[in-house]
Amino acid sequence: MTTSRNDDPLELPCTEEVPCTDCDVVTVPARQGLEAVDILRRGAGDAVGPVLHDDGGATLGFVVPRGTAAAWDVPGSICMETDGRGLRLTPEPPVEGSDWLLPPGEADLATDPAVLREALGEAQRLIEAADGCS
């Protein structure tokens, strides 16, 4: 999430109009991530924060609270820190070559890591069951 470009949205100052969120980002394979988004959006009271996808469609990135990376241990996923700099939640994606699946403003500030862990587990079980039926 770091780059040396001067126009990097992570480098711009946070304002009231364009807030930053202190967060980490959990990256998962797109198929599992899309299933997890569906699970999270169907859940009663289970909120999902902004979600990024790469242009190639291979991965999804869930915005989670800062500190999640320190204890993240879900197989098949990676949790990256934003190095305490925060992530600018703007309509433009914060990483070149990505786009918002669930943009800021249409989602909570971050997905609860415990809820995400459960949704990713359920998504993996659904995928394994679907693949086993073929």
Provide an overview of this structure.
This protein is of the alpha+beta class and 134 residues long. It is 25% helix and 23% strand. It contains two helices and seven strands; from the N terminus they run ββαβββββα. It has a five-stranded antiparallel sheet. A two-stranded antiparallel sheet has the order 1-6. The longest helix is centred in the C-terminal third of the chain and has 20 residues. The radius of gyration is 15 Å and the shape is globular. The termini are far apart.
**Alpha-carbon Rg, integer:** 15 Å
* Shape call: globular
Widest sheet: strand order?
5-2-4-3-7
Number of helices: 2
Low-confidence runs of at least 5 consecutive residues: 1-14
What does the main sheet amount to?
5 strands, antiparallel
Straight-line N-to-C gap: 38 Å
Briefly summarize what is shown.
The protein is α+β, with helices and mostly antiparallel strands and 134 residues long. The protein contains two helices and seven strands, in the order E-E-H-E-E-E-E-E-H. The radius of gyration is 15 Å and the shape is globular.
